[in-house]
Amino acid sequence: MKLLIEKKTSLVDKKAFETIKAQVKQKPDSLIGLAVGKTTDGLYKLISRDVLKSPIQWKKVKLFQIDENLGTSPDSLISFNHEVRQELNPLLKLVNPKNVFLIDGTKNPKLIIKEAYKFIKKNKGIDLIILGLGPIYDPHIAYNTTGKSSLNSKMRVVDLHPKITKKLKSKSLSLSVTAKYLKGITVGIKDILESKKALLIAYGKDKARSVSLTLNGKVNMSKASASALVLHKDLTVILDKAASKYLITT
Question: CATH code at 10?
Fold first, then answer.
């Protein structure tokens, strides 16, 4: 595991961007797994800015959305699909659509999973998967709910943590969007561990306990599904000082 601890969030984003840019330089047609959320906002802005500046370097990249809320259309303001297209718009305009896999939350989940694995296989695996980290009540990666995910889990439909469901419903109501948000669809822990490289990003004091449960010791799926990452063969973790508060380093 490669661990980087930066003084502030902007430096976390910068280091994460540099990691991804290095991957693209090394393998221009890399398949990159995309997480979404506040954690990746700054990172995706840096990528978009660089795409506009150096489009040739990004043109062959392949993209794969790693999770979604079931029941959300790609145009929903609470859809991860929508978020990816908004935040990485310059990149999605540049790359060939056949090299992009985004999840339509209104589709039959069995069909989504079948298409997802076909896409991954065609591209010979995920070269780099970008991951955020869930809060202390559920230190998850992708939508692999803590206590309900196993090391052998594959892409599947999952029950979301009650607090996540409540938050999504609240946001849905505030935006006048109709959706159930009782379940999600996600790549599994096994899929993540089979990626060639993994990049975990976390910042802020709210993630400090989650970071500790994830990295301070052995795998404990009942306390943090993200702890499975210590088994990854090529993991880079980038944190700010606040997120690393309880991390034991030597």
Answer: 3.40.50.1360
Is residue 5 helix, strand or coil?
strand
Report helix, strand or coil for 3.
strand
Cβ neighbours of residue 59 under 8 Å, at least 6 residues apart?
28, 94, 95
**Got the DSSP string for 10-27?**
HHHHHHHHHHHHHHHHH-
Residue 93 tokens, joined: 């305009």
Residue-wise pLDDT tens digits, 19-73: 999 999 999 999 999 999 999 999 999 999 999 999 999 999 999 999 999 988 9
Answer yes or no: is 249 within a domain. Answer: no
Domain annotation covers residue 245:
no
Quote the pTM value: 0.94
Please tell me the total count of domains within the chain.
1
